[in-house]
Write a structure and sequence with these properties.
Helix 10 links the parallel strand 6 and strand 7. By secondary structure, this protein is an alpha/beta fold. Strands 5-4-1-6-7 form a five-stranded parallel β-sheet, with helices on both faces. The protein has a two-stranded antiparallel sheet with strand order 2-3. The chain is globular, with a radius of gyration of 33 Å. Helix 2 runs antiparallel to helix 5 and helix 3 runs parallel beside helix 7. It starts with 6 loop residues before the first helix and ends in a 5-residue tail after the last helix.
Length: about 300
Amino acid sequence: MLKSVPTALAAALLLSACASGAPKQPPVVASAPQPAADLSPRPAADDNLNAVAWSQDASEHDFIYLQTYRNAEEKLLKALKDPTWDALPKDDRAGHPSLKGLKPAVVLDVDETVLDNSPYQARLVRSGTEYNEAEWAAWCKEGIARPLPGVVEFTRFAADHGIAVIYISNRAKDLDDATLDNLRSAGLPVAGKASFLGLGTVVEGCEQAGSEKGCRRQQVGKSYRVLMQFGDQIADFANVYGNTPEGRTKAMAPYTAWIGERWFVLPNPTYGAWEAAMFDNDYTLPREARRQKKIDSLRVK
């Protein structure tokens, strides 16, 4: 029979065995001090940042313009030879339906169709502000907007073949001269003031609704057979009666076969009626409220 081990001795032996068999622990080292969290205010997210960056830096942006204007140039002489070819919608041609004796022309919007205003949009992104008329007018008067890819070559080709180049713009009347100077300095053909129809153009017998271009297109139709139209907004081609998704679709529905043949639509992700349609054209809404309506309009499937 084994003799019992005294309790104190047993406890000592147990502690010794545990200590000798346990893995050694690394010495405790004080961790390096962590930098304090950066609590400085961050700039608010700007919905236009990626759109402006894409417009300025994406090769794809330039290629879209090049392919559009090159495609149009390839088809222009065919349109010129066809005496029935006309690119004005029915509403704008109604008052002057006959094409007989009319000189040929091409009609182009200016901003984001001919001239690149992305530097102005970039200034808004950097300052965290939105469009305002005074700053926009100041930008236009600088007269430094560059021509978009392919447009100089196309318009010169048209002019060299006796086709009038007409610009229809929604720039304010007091910007006419600055815009004409910018077009010329950018290398675009400008036959004279008559080739530019700005927002202040008065068309006798036609009541212009806001910035709609229908009256000015009708004015062009009095003297010209329009071979092609170019723009970045639906309203550059046809009147939109009600700027809603449904109204925009309805305006273009009769003319979808003309896209890429008589009408050439260019991309503009930075601004436009497409955006306003998402928040019911209500610019009195706070910026965040407009943004939320845009988010709500997104399709997720």
